[in-house]
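**Protein of interest**
===
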Amino acid sequence: MPVNEGRAVSENIIKVLVLGDIVGQPGCRAVFIGLKSIIKEYKADFVVINGENASDGFGITPEIALQIFASGADVISSGNHIWQKREIYQLLDSGEAILRPANYPPSAPGKGSVVLDVKGEKVAVLNLQGRKNFGNLDCPFKVGLENSKKLKNKAKIVIVDFHAESVEEKEALGIYLDGKVSAVLGTHTHVQSADERILPGGTAYLSDLGMTGPMNSVIGSDYNISVRRSLTQMPLKHEVADNPAVISGVFLELDSKSGKCLLIKRIKEQSNI
């Protein structure tokens, strides 16, 4: 591809898929069966998926994580629900590229970032969690800046999954890290936002990737239960809706030499299973 409109030659481009929270069996089925065809469609070199809701809507098991990797994911990121299944703790402490947010205390299982080889280049993924409506974690701005500086010494490309509820907090972090990382992409709400853009410093931004989960649902849950919860104000247990999933996220073209984003495109692929 010739140089035009500020885009680099093709040899320098790393093509990346970053997909939103997998929700339950519908999301898992969509990934296990459909991810490889999406990778082929976009000619993706690298795939990041948030897997924190993959096991019945809360947490992830080692078996599911390994199936996600086998389906084509290079990195599994997460958020506040990563702790729901205790059996995942050992995998978090292993060499597998499964992350928990970096701003949890150092004594918590696992790691908050990873650096991998992609097309002869290094690509880093950093996982952070917001504080608004979540709790007393370390500051994601401070931890994000510190970690991005360290990761930049190893990799030109740094992709941030910011698992947070507040759009204000997400946008503020995106601007704070603009030019210091390649992308700041929000997860957690399960609703894909429409504010994708490349910030002035070359950082891709989207407030929320959306979910990889059942489309006919309330953020992945059975809508009948969600409606009853609202009508009765009773603490009814959420159950994952059982219908075909939508795979949501973004496609990025990243310059491996500068680390800047050249293209961001929202994706939403409907599964039939």
About this structure: The chain has one domain: 13-270.
